[in-house]
């Protein structure tokens, strides 16, 4: 597998493919302020070895995809939704199994609602309902350690100091760990990789979070027709487990698989066997049909 970049309408989108085109495609959508490296290479390889063509990619303002000035994104939330479809078009993939995490889970929900013909199955990980409900869901807010990052984010690093930016990136992740603990050395490895391959880390850490919500009105989770799997950490401090339970309750036929001790993150290495088996089984059922 090698990174590739397509340019459409002046926009660069970087992606990587694991496996072979003859296999069913699994599209991995990362969270906000995450490049594709947080879907780790070994995780992708294991999915590919199970008979899937795996695609991971850099959102705009992450990794090697197009970057805007910090604080001035030149795109919309809708653009982030259609970018992965542009990559699939370039690969000649008409339908895919979509796996979205956090903000990527919101993108995945929009794709399933607005482009249902492109979605074979849906997997929503560490995320929350992205469209309103007819009733008050009364979902719990983030835990105090996460709320503190919103109310008192602290000073930004010197964005020209590579080591300072890596350290900052690690500390950003720390409050989102679950009861399995925070693997700082491993997080530092991923943070360093992200910093070294990202065009503008200040833009990565800023721009996704200031986009306007342009989700079409009238959409509801019960309109999702794709078979849906919900993976959710039992100790997610950003979206407590009730958020995953709400997704499973409102999407027809959805299945919830709790990830014991996981926080707000890609499935941690300790739970790869569980998460990968659940994704493979979920996608296999549809392929068999």
From TrEMBL:
Span list, region Disordered: 58-79
Domain of life, per lineage: Bacteria
AB hydrolase-1 domain segment(s): 25-264
InterPro entries per record: AB_hydrolase, AB_hydrolase_1, AB_hydrolase_fold
One Pfam family from the record: Abhydrolase_1
PANTHER family in UniProt: AB HYDROLASE-1 DOMAIN-CONTAINING PROTEIN (PTHR43433:SF5), HYDROLASE, ALPHA/BETA FOLD FAMILY PROTEIN (PTHR43433)
UniProt protein name: AB hydrolase-1 domain-containing protein
Native organism taxonomy: Bacteria, Bacillati, Actinomycetota, Actinomycetes, Streptosporangiales
């Amino acid at each position: 597998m090698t990174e590739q970049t397509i340019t459409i309408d002046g926009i660069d989108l970087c992606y990587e493919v694991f496996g072979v085109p003859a296999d069913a495609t699994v599209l991995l959508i990362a969270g906000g302020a995450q490049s594709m490296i947080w879907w780790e290479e070994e995780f992708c390889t294991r999915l590919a070895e199970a008979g899937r063509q795996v695609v991971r990619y850099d959102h705009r303002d992450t990794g090697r995809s197009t970057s805007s000035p910090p604080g001035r994104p030149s795109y919309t939330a809708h653009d982030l939704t259609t970018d992965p479809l542009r990559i699939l078009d370039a690969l000649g993939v008409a339908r895919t199994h979509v796996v979205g995490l956090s903000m990527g889970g919101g993108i995945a929900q929009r794709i399933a609602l607005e482009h249902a013909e492109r979605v074979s199955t849906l997997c929503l990980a560490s995320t929350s309902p992205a469209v309103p409900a007819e009733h008050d869901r009364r979902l719990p807010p983030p835990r105090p350690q996460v709320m503190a990052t919103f109310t008192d984010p602290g000073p930004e690093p010197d964005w020209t100091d590579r080591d300072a930016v890596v350290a900052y990136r690690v500390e950003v992740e720390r409050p989102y760990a679950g009861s399995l603990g925070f693997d700082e050395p491993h997080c530092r490895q991923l943070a360093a990789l992200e910093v070294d391959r990202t065009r503008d880390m200040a833009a990565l850490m800023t721009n996704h979070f200031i986009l306007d919500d342009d989700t079409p009105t009238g959409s509801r989770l019960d309109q999702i027709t794709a078979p849906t799997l919900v993976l959710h950490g039992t100790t997610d401090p950003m979206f407590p487990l009730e958020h995953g339970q709400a997704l499973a309750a409102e999407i027809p036929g959805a299945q919830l698989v709790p990830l014991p001790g996981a926080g707000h993150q890609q499935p941690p290495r300790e739970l790869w066997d569980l998460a990968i088996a659940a994704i493979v089984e979920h996608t296999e059922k549809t392929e068999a049909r």
